[in-house]
Specification:
Shape: globular
Strand content: 15-25%
Strand order of the largest sheet: 1-5-6
Oligomer: single chain
Largest sheet: 3 strands, parallel
Number of domains: 1
Number of strands: 6
Number of helices: 3
């Protein structure tokens, strides 16, 4: 059994949180080259500099940082590598498909944090 001895767990999603499609509406975001495990080739996407910075800040504050994706653990790992976040991330995993609890998630996890990529944030 593995025990996480940290009460401050911060999961970050990959798609539309850390990275975005390489499309005209995202052309103002910085590009990043990521290996796509499905297509078995590198693709260019865009990344949210605000959320990447927030991930690094959470690590600096002592948080246990998880990066997950509904696209699977390999996609999440490749995003972490492409964004050079290995030293800031404690765990990479597939995003949970369900949870088992007597309480709805809204009763115990009320805070959803998301910084828009185009908003001014410590720049």
């Amino acid at each position: 059994m593995k025990v996480v001895k940290n009460e401050n767990i911060r999961p970050f999603d990959v798609d539309s949180t850390l990275i975005y499609p390489n499309s005209p509406e995202n052309e103002n975001l910085p590009p990043v080259l990521i290996f796509d495990p499905v297509e078995r080739r590198y693709i260019t996407l865009r990344y949210n500099i605000n959320m990447v910075r927030l991930l690094k800040e959470e690590h600096q504050r002592g948080s246990y940082v998880i990066v997950w994706s509904r696209g699977g653990w390999e996609w999440a790992r490749n995003a972490v590598i492409a964004l050079e976040l290995q030293e800031y991330v404690d765990r990479v995993m597939s995003k949970p498909l369900a949870y088992f609890d007597d309480q709805p998630v809204e009763t115990w996890m009320k805070d959803r944090i998301y910084l828009e990529p185009n908003m001014a944030y410590k720049r």
